[in-house]
Amino acid sequence: MSSFAQRTAMADPSSISALIIDRSPEMRGTLRAMLGQGGIDDVQPAANAATAIRKLEERPFDLILCEYALGEGQDGQHLLEDLRTHHLIPLSTVFIMVTGESSYEKVVSAVELAPNDYLLKPFTADALYQRISRALVKRDAFLPAYGLIEIGNMGGAVERCREGEGRTPQYAIDFMRLRAELLIGMGRAGEAQSIYRMILESKAVPWAKLGLAKTLYLQQRFEQAEDALRELVQENRQYVDAYDWLSRTREAAGRMKAAQEALEEAVAVSPHTLRRLKRLGDIALDTGDMEVAERAFSEVVRKGRYSDFRDPEHHVKLVKVFIAKGDREQAERTIRDLDRSMHGLPKTEACSALSSAMVLSKAGDKEKALAALTRALEASRSNSAISDDLKIDLAKTCLEHQQEGSAAEMIGEVMRNAADDQAVEKAKGVLEQAGLKSMADELAVRTKQEVMDLVATGARHAEAGDHEGAVDFMLQAVRKMPGNTQVGLNAALALLKLIEHRGWNEKFAVQARGLVDRARRSDPAHPRIAALTSYYQNMLSKYGIQPGRS
User: pLDDT of 259-278, one tens digit each?
Assistant: First the structure.
């Protein structure tokens, strides 16, 4: 029996796979030796975040040991957030942060996407073994729920959590937390609210207060949600996720300047998270606060160079800031950096050409600006990854050059792809501000009818028994309008009907679940999400699909 198995509750450490992420070859070697002495031999090293991501794309790992200070503008916490956000590690992967920074305890206590555990240097082999064992034993208790979550059976996972609360009382509060989060994802905010209130009656934990505020937000009780969030950040100034939700709540209530202030407070506490910095920059652009927008997007661009998830559109936002400030030199420098640091990425050509068009237009060089704008339009037409924000910027630049047809084309694409009526109104506003209200109204009516016709055509295929045709048609619509919630949910419905009538198909099930998850992220309170989730779960039950079956 290995020393690891002798000293811990783990029966078979040889079955555990591990990934070590550390820029120091010596530390990677030390950790690998410690794991080997404990019986864990399936160990892969990674010197940086990019290498780690490539390895994780190739295979899953049971255990990740990650150094907090990774260098090159990154740290382990941001890598963990990237991995969780982009679904590169399953829930069953144990992530342990290794750090020499005693202040990390403040970091880990203030984030929602926290590691399973952390280790302060220096540490002994025994300390490492005990932390790994503790995390894996807890992980194993949650595996039945995790397995159901992975196949999309959220209702079953809720029941497994309920069972886990009684079976393993030492983890009861953790099971309750997961159960509440699952209920929120299923659109059952009222039930989640009851769980959070029950927890808070016995223990005033910050995450339960945040969860309660989320349920209020999802019920559109924005004033009550804001009161709860303000109280939470006053009690815990380090709780950055509470600031994020406070900003989101104020934005939903139309108070953009107050939303910006909440994000500025969050960034002051945790100044490195790209997602938060980007949102701060976007809101500051909307409120006209170019100083804050410049600081935010400059940091996003700087840190983005080291990320596998970097986006050339961030450079465009920074160019817009410098144009607004009248700083052509910095705008042109940003474009050169865009061309150099984002070379070869799919959106770079469109972003660079649009940025040049905006700078040249501001400088009064209409001929060169129009040529750059033409390049930007051509590049964007062949790239489905271009965001609606960039298309709106393209439309605005087209209008500056009396290219009303091209502007209408871009705005029409935004309207077709709009997740909700608010997004449609924002797109209409671009044309209305240019004195083209009748064009805006006509486009809105036409694009709405196009979406309705698409959905109706898909429904007719299904009603005629042509479920394969309905799926093909609706998936084509999704590719054209990936952000349109109505289209996405109807495509999910078509996929589930095909499964119901033709039998279980793992590929179609994954596609349906992905479309519902996308809609849930965009609009968690959408009334159709709960019904489609229930339909999906009925298909799992009908065909006896269990975790681990493909």
Answer: 999 999 999 988 877 889 99
Q: Which residues pair with 94 in a beta bridge?
A: 63
CATH topology of domain 271-369: 1.25.40
- C-beta separation of 461 from 473 below 8 A: yes
Please enumerate, as own/partner, the contacts of 435-443 that have beta carbons within 8 Å and a separation of 24 or more.
436/399, 436/404, 439/404, 439/408, 440/411, 443/408, 443/411, 443/412, 443/415
Whether residue 122 is preceded by a cis peptide bond, meaning omega within 30 degrees of 0, is yes
Which of 301, 303, 233, 223 has the alpha carbon at shortest distance from 268?
A: 233
Two tokens, residue 258: 């107050």
- Whether 271-369 shares its CATH topology with 465-542 is answered yes
Query: pLDDT digits over 335-365, tens only?
Result: 999 999 999 999 999 999 999 999 999 999 9
Query: The domain at 3-141 falls in which architecture?
Result: 3-Layer(aba) Sandwich (3.40)
Q: By three-state DSSP, how is residue 71 classified?
A: strand
Q: What ranges in 383-505 are assigned the alpha helix state H?
A: 388-400, 404-417, 421-433, 437-463, 467-480, 485-502
Distances, alpha carbon 371 to alpha carbons 212, 353, 362, in Å: 53, 9, 14
Question: Can you give the pTM of this predicted structure?
Answer: 0.84
β-sheet bridge partners, residue 64: 19, 95
Domain ranges of the chain: 3-141, 271-369, 387-457, 465-542
CA gap 404, 238 in Å, rounded: 49
> What H or E segment, with its residue span, contains residue 155?
helix 154-167
Distances from the Cα of 328 to the Cα of 97, 288, 289, 299, 360, angstroms: 43, 18, 18, 19, 9
Q: At residue 324, does pLDDT exceed 90?
A: yes
> Torsions phi, psi of 445, nearest 5?
-65, -45
User: Which of 45-54, 226-235, 329-338, 448-457 has the weakest average pLDDT?
Assistant: 448-457
Q: Is the dihedral of CA 87, 91, 94, 97 positive or negative?
A: positive
- Rounded to the nearest integer, the mean pLDDT of the chain is 90
| CATH code that applies to domain 465-542 | 1.25.40
What are 113-172's pLDDT values in tens digits? 678 888 888 899 999 999 999 999 999 999 999 998 888 888 889 999 999 999 999 999
